Amino acid sequence: MKIKNIFQYINFKIIMIFIIIIFLIFLFKIYWVSNNIIYPNIKISEIEVGGLTKDQARIKLKQLIQHNKKEKSLIFCYQGEKWKVPYKNFKHQYDIEKTIDRVYYLGKNGNFLNRIRNYFYFKNREINVPLETIIDSTEIEKIIKQLAQEINIQEEDAKIQLKDGKINILPEKKGRRLEEKKLEKMIEEHLQFFNQEWIQLPVKETFPKITQQDLNSINGKIASFSTYFNSQKKQRVENLRVASRKIDGKILLPGEILSVNKSIGPITKENGYKDAPVIVNGKLQTDIGGGVCQVSTTLYNAAVRANLQIVERQHHSMPVSYVPLGQDAAIAGNWKDLKIKNNLDESVYIEMYLKGNQLIANLYSNQDFKQEIDLETELVSTISPEVIYKKDFSKNISYKKVEQEGKKGYRVHVYKIWYKNGKVKKRQLLHKDYYPPVDRIMIIGQKKEGIEEY
């Protein structure tokens, strides 16, 4: 009985050793296979490469990439329209080696048992790794710009047309714009997963700033002002025409501020401006855009009479001929500007044009805001210029020459006056201006006559 039990025990041990050997061989085979192939259920850009060696995966990818670049296209869609762009046009490249190395070593870190466990882990799960793609951003941008030209529609503000004194409002138009950055990312994704061919273009609806509703309350003229100019000064007249056209048609929504500098600038020859006289430090000299201050001055006077808020205004360094003292508004570079705020509850439309030798500014809004307003200048003092003598020792003592004519200076107070039925209702000090005098400069000879020098 004991001998029988001993034999049974020995047989059991032999069987167990055999099973262990078979299991170890099985594990070794899995280990060996897992170290020579890509783990199962792994894809590269939706292409099955699990169970393949690196060489097999490389061949499969190259064949599919060559086919796709030759035969396939990205098809962009929007509202029933389609634009087909072949893959090869994107001029991108794929880093096959880098991608294969990446998927090949997935799960192969760690010891023997970890690798065996990872093998079974991947066998029961699907992993999709994007193909390493070298993007040619320049080519993608070119294609996107071409699509944008097809898609983009500029939104249009509601407009006002004046004809025979009648106000006609043209409704606004919505626009649309291709979202270029979003599309660029979508293209890059599709180039990585190149079996996805269709792209719905991301398009954003755009809305105008000014709507018909903003203009419906404009029913008439609330203020007007005009100044005169010399029509023989062609260059200056052209500057008036160019600048006034840039102001004409402007619409100020409630609370909005108009900058004349921004509206008519930049003042360059490329924008149509000519050389004409300008005031610089109390002197006249020729420069580009001479005369545009008459546009700002005319608009300023119309705005004051419409009771709009003057946010910024500066006078010239010397009086101008086209308005009384203190009623001018100079603009210059970035340091002098006229800024007007629409402080009314309704929109304001600006009309500005040349007629004969007149520059005219008309402001339109709801006629409930119309008031009878005028400006009045009070001359506070007149300042006589000083006479400056400059000695010239190269000229005879009898020599005298006026190098610069003197000009008087002025201090003025300007009042804004409200009328009702022809009578003064309210009087308000608007501002105080000072126009400095310009000194008279005389050159006096100092050399005595008849004296010989040795």
Automatic annotation (TrEMBL):
Q: Which superkingdom, per the lineage?
A: Bacteria
Record's keyword annotation contains Kinase: no
Tell me which stretches of the chain form a coiled coil.
Answer: 137-164
Answer yes or no on keyword Ribosomal protein: no
Print the keywords alphabetically.
Coiled coil, Membrane, Signal, Transmembrane, Transmembrane helix
Residues crossing the lipid bilayer are: 12-32
Extract the Pfam families matched here: G5 (PF07501), PG_binding_4 (PF12229), VanW (PF04294)
**What range(s) does the G5 domain occupy?**
369-448
- Write down what this protein is called: Putative peptidoglycan binding domain-containing protein
